């Protein structure tokens, strides 16, 4: 299953991951990518320069703060752990 540059726009990620988990065959995989924040920087964004005019780095606001990007990853890992535990319980009850 594949998701291309879409998950960071989804409001209910848990529902998406639940559906993906249920749809995958054993051994299947879910591949996804999300935008890197450097590509979502403002239109007028520019390098930060030192006093001599040398480019030092490209600033990205809030890169290390919890954002839509990190929500995508956190929801996936937390949701997958819960779904795996639930699947094991269901299998053991059969």
* Overall body shape: elongated
Overall average residue pLDDT: 76
The major beta sheet can be summarized as: 2 strands, parallel
Q: Could you tell me how far the N terminus lies from the C terminus, measured between alpha carbons in angstroms?
A: 27 Å
How many structural domains?
1
Low-pLDDT residue spans: none
Assign a percent range to the helix content.
25-40%
Structural class: alpha+beta
Strand content: 5-15%
* Major sheet: arrangement of strands: 1-2
* Total DSSP helices: 2
H/E element sequence: EHEEEH
Cα gyration radius (Å): 19 Å
Please count the beta strands (DSSP E, at least 2 residues each).
4
Verbal overview:
By secondary structure, this protein is an alpha+beta fold. It has one domain (2-92). Helices cover 38% and strands 12% of the residues. The protein contains two helices and four strands, in the order βαβββα. The strands form two sheets. The protein has a two-stranded parallel ribbon with strand order 1-2. A two-stranded antiparallel sheet has the order 3-4. α1 links the parallel β1 and β2. α1 (13-23) crosses α2 (68-92). The longest helix has 25 residues, at 68-92. The two termini are 27 Å apart. The relative contact order is 0.18. The model has no long low-confidence stretch (mean pLDDT 76).
